[in-house]
Write a structure and sequence with these properties.
The structure is a single chain. The chain is built from 20 helices and 17 strands. By secondary structure, it is α/β, with parallel strands linked by helices. The chain folds into 2 domains: 271 residues, Rossmann fold, CATH 3.40.50; 181 residues, Glycogen Phosphorylase B (Rossmann fold), CATH 3.40.50.2000. Strands 3-2-1-4-5-8-9 form a 7-stranded parallel β-sheet, sandwiched between helices. Helix 3 crosses helix 9, helix 4 packs parallel to helix 5 and helix 13 crosses helix 18. The protein starts with a strand and ends with a helix. 48% of the residues are buried. Keywords: Transferase.
Length: 481
């Protein structure tokens, strides 16, 4: 069989970059005739992400996966955007010429043993590069690292936008909306964060990107048929000019986690030693993602709730960034943000840390529950390692993910689904009750969670659903040769 090359590019954020890399690895391992080149967008404004980029760029080729660091483009000025997605979208757009040059070089190398470029995979915010792919006659695919429900939401965002008059917010128009891919009406208070204020640039950027998805040859989603069957079947029945062919090929996970490239940052060794001394399935893990942070008043309520619940806990606390282009930081003085006496009262019972290698923590036998921001990577990791979820969405599409897990799939315990930092406050009583339901529960939610968790390991077996869909994608990629 002839050799073939595929090219990937991702938004420079860990939640986008990591699953893109893992999918590229999986594709090339499944079919040895493929090689993959991952184009890296540098982002000095975010040292955590940039250090990961630097690590990748310096890494020797792993299997058939290569990394190519693009020349740095001029960053957007602060007055060009209101929301973080505005900054990222403009930064990505500013790399158009660099991406074209890289693709031209890869195409010119097609006579070598590496083969023809048969596909260019972009992610949800890299839509400017659709035009580059068209110009160079390369089939362009969307790799969507969020759930199928959010994909359906995005594909129908234009029609949703048209339902509400221009000067009206969604919350002022209706309390619920019917959206393809959801079996229940979706409450507005669970809409993604960018939907809350239509006049800021965040909303317009999402609308802009969503309108371009239909221009791709297909959409690869990091999910699996058995998990999101209702939504995937709805997408499959949608007309082709709204939703291109969808390939659910998940769960694609990074089982090593970021500890492999920056262990010292996390205090990794101390955390793992502490967990080793805890009873199996006894510890509650709380983490709100690499971009998640909570107000000090909310941190205090969580602390009081944890103390009331009495369960051992590992809690990753992050301080809000001072610049909207940056990521949260670890706190340097916990006594300033926690209730007086909390650290002493929970000494030995709980451990507070900064950002930790989440997948490594979830894989540990001591973890019995996960209070999660409901980022999709985190949900898939929890499912794979069998750690039940308590929902606490913070930003992006996480409120929609929480709604799906609790109401659509009955796979998670609700602590909150509509938390918005600065406008809502979850009481310590609600925290304590939610933790108790999560850690004590043996009911329908936990049983369903266990069954789906088992499915995670089966979908990649021969004739498993994700294996079949990946085979269909590979056939389509090779058909252009």
């Amino acid at each position: 069989m002839k050799k073939a090359k595929v090219v990937f590019i991702s938004t420079p954020a860990l939640g986008n970059l990591v699953p893109t890399i893992e999918f590229a690895k999986h594709l090339t391992q499944t079919n040895q005739n493929f090689s993959a080149t991952i184009l890296l967008i540098n982002i000095p404004q975010r040292p955590l992400v940039q250090s990961y980029n630097d690590f990748l760029a310096a890494t020797a080729t792993t299997g058939n996966v290569h990394f190519l660091s693009l020349p740095t483009a001029d960053p957007p000025s602060l007055d060009q955007f209101d929301a973080t997605i505005g900054f990222l979208s403009l930064l990505i757009q500013n790399h158009t010429s660099q991406v074209k040059d890289a693709l031209v070089n890869l195409i010119s190398d097609s006579d070598s043993d590496s083969g023809q470029v048969v596909g260019f995979f972009i992610d949800m915010f890299c839509t400017p590069f659709i035009d580059v792919a068209k110009e160079l006659n390369i089939p362009c695919y969307l790799y969507f690292a969020s759930p199928a429900t959010f994909l359906s939401f995005m594909c129908h965002l234009s029609s949703l936008d048209a339902q509400v008059s221009v000067n009206t917010e969604f919350k002022d128009s209706a309390t619920h909306f019917n959206i393809l891919g959801f079996s229940n009406p979706v409450p507005v208070n669970c809409f993604p964060s960018f939907m809350l204020k239509r006049k800021i640039d965040g909303y317009s950027w999402f609308l802009h990107h969503a309108r371009r998805y239909k221009e791709t040859k297909g959409i690869v989603v990091n999910t699996f048929q058995e998990l999101e069957s209702y939504c995937l079947n709805s997408l499959a029945s949608a007309v082709a000019d709204v939703v291109p062919p969808v390939y659910p090929i998940g769960p694609v996970l990074d089982h090593n986690g970021p500890a492999q490239w920056h262990q010292d940052l996390w205090g990794h060794e101390n955390v793992m030693k502490w967990l080793d001394n805890q009873a199996p399935s006894s510890v509650l893990f709380l983490s709100f993602g690499s971009m998640g942070s909570l107000s000090i008043s909310q941190v205090k309520e969580i602390a009081k709730g944890l103390e009331k619940s009495g369960y051992p806990f590992l809690w990753a606390i992050r301080e809000a960034p001072k610049d909207k282009r940056e990521l949260p930081n670890d706190y340097t003085n916990l006594e300033e943000i926690l209730p007086y006496g909390f650290l002493e009262a929970t000494k030995g019972k709980g451990l507070i840390c900064g950002l930790v290698p989440q997948v490594t923590i979830l894989a540990h036998k001591a973890i019995g529950g996960f209070v999660s921001h409901c980022g999709w990577n985190s949900i898939l990791e929890s499912l794979y390692y069998g750690v039940p979820i308590g929902t606490w969405p913070v930003y992006a599409e996480q409120h929609l993910n929480a709604f799906e897990m609790v109401k659509e799939l009955n796979l998670a315990v609700e602590i909150t689904m509509d938390y918005r930092d600065g406008t809502t406050l979850v009481s310590s009583e609600k925290v304590a009750n939610g933790v108790k339901n999560l850690m004590d529960g043996e009911g329908e939610v936990r049983q369903r969670f266990k069954k789906i968790s088992e499915k995670c390991k089966e979908v990649w077996k021969e004739n498993g659903s994700s294996s079949v869909f990946l085979g269909q994608l590979i056939d389509k990629l090779l058909a252009v040769i």
